[in-house]
Structures are given as structure tokens and as C-alpha cells.
Design brief:
The complex is a heterotrimer of chains A (331), B (172) and C (176). Chain A is mainly alpha-helical and 331 residues long. Chain A has 13 helices and two strands. Chain A has one domain. In chain A, helix 2 crosses helix 11 and helix 9 packs antiparallel against helix 13. Chain C has a domain of 97 residues: Alpha-Beta Plaits. Chain C is elongated and about 90 Å long. The N and C termini of chain C lie far apart (90 Å). The chains are: A mainly alpha (331), B mainly alpha (172), C alpha+beta (176). Chains in contact: A-B, A-C.
Chain lengths: 331, 172, 176
């Protein structure tokens, strides 16, 4: 019983630490994105609140919390209220299976540095990321507005298309690690990261992940200059904030998935593992911001053509070739 | 003991959700109940020691098939069911109750099975075992099913392609 | 197969945005840094004076007639020597669109645009400028110009006595 209690408390502590770290990081991702985008466009970005604008996230939160929380009269009320929470919650839940560093020993007991090391951790992540569609779909539908509905429809079609190529891109990684557990996937990359072993899979995964996070160039569900703000057109105040923060939590979780699956997780010379992990996640997040500053939004038919007629066939071929090579070379 | 209680609770929840699904007038609400049923079903699979099947249930049925359903419903504007939405809170009582049952069962499962966080119980089927059985003993069945899917895909492509358009003909 | 071209085009864009990261931003951080506007910048109007210190305005109403938003109003008055002046002169800057038509219409160079652009006020009524607020000490863009040395009634020189001026026309001589 005491064993169970200690395990539960440890999980709780890890949970709180991870939540705090992820939420804080998400808040500062917003600031970092605005700063980096600003510098890419020869502007300064926010620099008024606090030194270098570092208090900007607090100002944003205060602003969002004090704004009026509007619910459209014809909306499906409860669904409308639940959807934004779902967006953030699902993104946060994915973090349960991400391993940050090798197990550490504290007071004579080995503590795995992952909230919950599922043996199907990868599938858990894929499952949650496919559930993330529901927050968009239901939020957009419950608003009872044509722009929100259009955004929701676009989101549904886009996420379901790119999930396929994302799932296919991780198959070579699973083949290499011979396991669905994220910890074992990281352990299998001790020599060199999967990025070098499966470069094509890495590129496909990066592109799919960008589509999955609904950011430029794949931000059709929001498409500011076509459908107002897409699925969150009718949202205001902190409910909009939850959608917004959900997007950045998503960026972090997807960044850590790229790190875990392709960049070798915590492996790296000199620095402690957790620092390597954070650095890699931040580098991926920077790539996301960089892409947003570089590429324009795709047209809808381009998005669908690229997903179904290019990315998925290439991913399938990649799986086939990788499997054949591993069968020929492997033990 | 806890296992059988959880099973019957989940089974009841699944049946209720499915029943509610087929009696709804609004297609979107029906989809939500169906997703709920899939959730409970996935939990039952997990209870039976098949986490892989549970994960596939979530990814494929809840995450892909139902999303396609939603997509079609929204595309064809069936969403409102022809009449304006009414603000009726009683409508939400069943779904909240079902969610509560599902949540409680999840918590019970985690408590009953501390291994979900560590040491791996005896009756869990690992993905490796699953794959071995599937592609070894049932290899022929898998092949047949995959051929069927291939035919379905080719057929869908053929149907979706439509008549080749003549030159100068107006696109509709 | 344009795949190579597409990949190259995409990567070039990435290189451009990355290099912009290290350029100095072009932003002028307004309250701390201010830009000096050009002398001909069209902002708040002023009323200027002669080289001798007298008001240039002769209250001819041409500026208020030219004004498209009707934000200039004045009351004409006459001095004992026959010289006209504005008894009061009012510009409502809450309505002014800074088009510069008044300055173009002015025959005496009295009303001119100045580069002073920071005239935001919380109270719109405080944007109604009176003659005292508008008058400045010098001649603005042309300090040497004095209308009465070229035309007008005999304030500086006797009527028609300026160097570049014809004498007054005798209307009777025009009759055929």
C-alpha cells in the first residue's frame, strides 16, 4: 500500500512539474513567436511590458481573463463551452508519455523521468492527436456560424489527411526501435538520431506535424483573410485564450515528439540530458516559427493534393523501402 | 472483483451510449454518443489486457472514422437537423452521466492496475505478441481483408473519377 | 519534374527570413525616438507675421472658403488706416484634414503648414485653436515677404507706389 502511495505521489509531483513547465513554456512561446516573427519582418515585437517585453504573457492573460465571455444566442451552449477546454486538455494529456531524461535515482529509488511510460506510448500520442480534431469540429459546429463551420470542416479534412502521413512516417522509427514505447525509442537512438537514419521519414513527419498543429502554411482552419478566424470566430475572452494556448501547447508537444522520435531525445554530449531535450524541443519550436515567418498559406486544393497525392504515397514507399532494407541488412 | 464491476459498468455505458446514438435527431449529437461508445469499448479492451486494440479503437474508429462522419455531416449541412437549435440543458444530462461513468471506470482501472505506471501485469498483451499472432496464425485472413480494402479503394477511385469530360464542355 | 525547383525555392525563402533575423529593425520607437519631419511637412497650421512684426492675415476668407471640411472661421475687422485684419480667427483641428488647401489659397502667406505633428488631445474642444494659439513670432517659410510691399492699400508705401506695382486704374478711362 505504501508502495502504491509513494508511486502515486511521485506521479502527482511529476504531473504538476510537467504541467507547470509546459504551461509556462507555452506562455513564453507566444512571446517568442511574436518576437522572432517581428525580427524577421524588421520589427521589434512586443517590448513594452517589463524588460524586453518579458511580462507580456501576464498582460495577455489578464486581458483575456477580464474580457467578456460571449456565447452566441443560437449556439449549442454546453458544447460551445466545453470545446476550448478540450483543445488545451488533449494537448496537455499527450505530455504524459514524453520521456525527458533517463531515469534518475533519488533516495535509493529509481524514478523514470516520464509521467507514465506506456508500452504503447506512441499510439497513445497518435490517438490523442486524432482526438484533437473534435475540439475544432465541435467548437466550430456549436458556434452556429458559417465561418466557424467552414473552419471546422477545413480542420477536419486537413487533420485527417495529414494524420495518415504522420502515422506512416513513424513506422520506420518503430521498426528501428522494435517498440511503441517512447523511452525505448529514445534508447534506440543512442548511437545516432533517427533523423540521419530515416531522413525522408523525418521530413514527412515534420511537414505532417506542421499541418497537425494548424499553423502557417497549413492554417486553413483559421484562415484570417478568408473566413474571419475559422473555428474560433465566435469565441472571446479566456475561451479564445484556451484555443490559443492549446495551439502553443500543441507546438511544444509536437516539438517534443519530433525530438523523441527523430532527434534522439535526451542524447547529446557534455550537457545534462534534460538540457539537451529542452534545447532540441526549442529548436523544433523555432523551426515552426521560422516556417510561419517564411511560407504563405496553401490553397485548399493544394493542401489536399500535397497530402494525398504526394506525402502519403511517398510515406508508403518509404515504409516499404525501409522495411525491405531492414529485412535485408538486419539480423 | 473490481475488474468485473468495471466491465459491467462499461458494458452498460456502451449500450446506453449506442442506444442514445441511434435515437438522436441531431446527427452531431449522435456522433458524440457514438464516440462515447467507442471510448467505453476501448476501455473494455484495455480491461481485457489488449492495450494495442484499445489504442487502435481510439485512433481508427474515434479518431478517423467518426471524424469522417462529422466531416460529411457538416459538409452536407445536416448538422442542425432542419430545425433551429434550442437551449435545453436536460439534453445534456445523459452525456454528462455517461462521461462520469467512463471517467470513474478509468480511475478505477488505474487504481486496480498500478502497473499502468510501471511494472507490467501478466495478462497484458504486448504489441509484439499481438503482431506475431496476427501476421503468423491469421496471415491469410489479414491478406484477404487487405485485398478487400484495396478493391474498395480502387472502386472508390473509379466511382469518384466520373466521366471523362469532353473538350469545351462546361464544368459543373 | 519541378520538384528540385520547388525545394530550392522554398529553401531560399527560409534563408531570406533567417538573414532578416540579424538585420536592424526599421521601427522608430516613437515616444523615445522621434523623427524630424521635413520642413515642408503638412501638419498643424500657423499664422505668420510680417518682417515688421505685423499680422499678415487680411481676413479675406479665402482659406475658409477653400477648406473642404469647413474648419476655419474668422471675423474680419478694419483698422483706422483701412487695413483689414481678423478680429478673431479660429481653426478646429479636430476637423482639419491637413490637406493644405488653405495655405495654397492664402494671398498673403499668412496661413502656413508647420511640421508640428504632435497635437493629440484628450478633449476635442481643446483642439479648437484661437488666433493667439495660432500666431507665431516670425514669417514661417518666407521671412522676407510682406504683402503690402507688393500690393494692397497703402499701409507701407502709398497705394500703387510699390516697385513692382502698377498705379490704380481709373475706371473712367476704361469706358470706350
Amino acid at each position: 500500500m505504501t508502495e502504491l502511495l509513494i508511486t502515486s505521489i511521485l506521479i502527482l509531483v511529476k504531473l504538476i512539474l510537467v504541467f507547470a513547465a509546459v504551461l509556462g513554456l507555452a506562455a513564453y512561446m507566444v512571446l517568442a513567436e511574436r518576437k522572432v516573427l517581428g525580427r524577421m519582418q524588421l520589427r521589434y515585437g512586443p517590448n513594452r511590458v517589463g524588460p524586453f517585453g518579458l511580462m507580456q504573457p501576464m498582460a495577455d492573460v489578464i486581458k483575456l481573463l477580464t474580457k467578456e465571455d460571449l456565447v452566441p444566442a443560437k449556439a449549442d451552449r454546453i458544447m460551445f463551452l466545453i470545446a476550448p477546454g478540450m483543445a488545451s486538455l488533449i494537448a496537455l494529456l499527450s505530455f504524459a508519455v514524453v520521456p525527458f531524461s533517463p531515469p534518475i535515482t533519488l533516495f535509493g529509488r529509481t524514478i523514470p523521468m516520464v509521467v507514465c511510460d506506456l508500452n504503447i506510448g506512441l499510439l497513445y500520442f497518435l490517438g490523442l492527436s486524432s482526438l484533437a480534431v473534435y475540439s475544432i469540429a465541435l467548437g466550430g459546429w456549436a458556434s452556429n456560424s458559417k465561418y466557424a463551420l467552414l473552419g471546422a470542416i477545413r480542420g477536419l479534412a486537413q487533420l485527417i489527411s495529414y494524420e495518415l502521413s504522420m502515422g506512416l512516417a513513424v513506422v520506420p522509427v518503430v521498426l528501428t526501435a522494435k517498440s511503441f514505447s517512447l523511452t525505448e525509442i529514445v534508447v534506440s537512438q543512442a548511437d545516432w538520431p533517427n533523423m540521419l537514419r530515416h531522413p525522408l521519414a523525418f521530413v514527412i513527419f515534420m511537414i505532417s506535424v506542421m499541418a497537425e498543429s494548424k499553423r502557417t502554411p497549413f492554417d486553413l482552419p483559421e484562415g484570417e483573410n478568408e473566413i474571419v478566424a475559422g473555428y474560433h470566430t465566435e469565441y472571446s475572452g479566456m475561451r479564445f485564450g484556451l484555443f490559443f494556448v492549446g495551439e502553443y501547447i500543441n507546438v511544444i508537444i509536437l516539438g517534443s515528439m519530433v525530438t523523441v522520435l527523430f532527434l534522439g531525445g535526451w542524447h547529446g554530449p557534455l550537457l545534462p540530458p534534460i538540457v539537451w531535450f529542452s534545447l532540441k524541443v526549442l529548436a523544433v519550436a523555432f523551426c515552426f516559427i521560422w516556417t510561419r515567418g517564411t511560407l504563405p498559406r496553401l490553397r485548399y486544393d493544394q493542401l489536399m493534393h500535397f497530402g494525398w497525392k504526394f506525402l502519403i504515397p511517398v510515406a508508403l514507399t518509404n515504409v516499404l523501402i525501409t522495411g525491405a532494407v531492414m529485412l535485408a541488412v538486419g539480423p | 472483483m473490481i475488474g468485473s464491476v468495471v466491465f459491467y459498468l462499461l458494458a452498460a455505458a456502451t449500450l446506453t451510449a449506442t442506444l442514445l446514438c441511434i435515437t438522436r435527431t441531431s446527427p452531431v449529437h449522435a456522433v458524440i454518443y457514438l464516440v462515447h461508445a467507442f471510448f467505453d469499448l476501448a476501455l473494455i479492451f484495455y480491461l481485457f489486457g489488449a492495450p494495442l486494440v484499445a489504442a487502435w479503437e481510439m485512433i481508427i474508429y474515434a479518431g478517423a472514422v467518426m471524424v469522417l462522419f462529422l466531416f460529411i455531416i457538416m459538409m452536407l449541412e445536416l448538422a442542425t437537423g432542419g430545425k433551429p437549435l434550442t437551449v435545453d440543458r436536460r439534453r445534456w444530462v445523459p452525456v454528462l452521466l455517461l462521461s462520469l461513468v467512463t471517467l470513474a471506470c478509468t480511475v478505477l482501472l488505474i487504481i486496480q492496475d498500478p502497473s499502468a505506471v510501471g511494472s507490467g501485469p501478466a495478462y497484458h498483451v504486448s504489441p509484439r505478441d499481438f503482431g506475431t499472432v496476427l501476421f503468423d496464425r491469421y496471415a491469410l485472413a489479414v491478406q484477404v481483408v487487405s485485398f478487400q480494402l484495396l478493391f474498395a479503394a480502387v472502386g472508390a477511385y473509379y466511382v469518384g473519377k466520373g466521366e471523362p469530360r469532353k473538350r469545351g464542355e462546361q464544368s459543373s | 519534374m519541378n520538384l528540385w525547383r520547388d525545394i530550392k525555392g522554398t529553401l531560399q525563402a527560409y534563408a531570406v527570413t533567417f538573414s532578416y533575423l540579424f538585420r536592424k529593425p526599421t521601427t522608430i520607437q516613437y515616444p523615445e525616438e522621434r523623427r524630424t519631419p521635413a520642413p515642408r511637412y503638412r501638419a498643424r497650421m500657423v499664422l505668420t507675421r510680417d518682417p515688421d512684426g505685423g499680422e499678415r492675415c487680411v481676413a479675406c476668407h479665402l482659406c475658409s472658403a477653400a477648406c473642404p471640411v469647413d474648419c476655419i472661421s474668422m471675423q474680419a475687422a478694419e483698422a483706422p488706416d483701412g487695413r483689414r485684419y481678423a478680429a478673431w480667427f479660429r481653426i478646429n483641428f479636430a476637423r482639419c484634414i491637413f490637406c493644405g488647401l488653405c495655405a495654397e489659397a492664402c494671398p498673403t502667406l499668412a496661413i502656413q503648414m508647420s511640421p508640428e505633428y504632435e497635437i493629440c488631445k484628450r478633449d476635442p474642444l481643446s483642439l479648437v485653436y484661437e488666433k493667439e494659439d495660432l500666431l507665431i513670432g516670425d514669417g514661417g517659410k518666407d521671412n522676407d515677404y510682406n504683402f503690402y510691399r507688393h500690393a494692397g492699400i497703402g499701409v507701407v508705401n502709398p497705394r500703387g507706389g510699390n516697385a513692382d506695382e502698377y498705379g490704380p486704374v481709373d475706371p473712367g478711362a476704361l469706358v470706350p
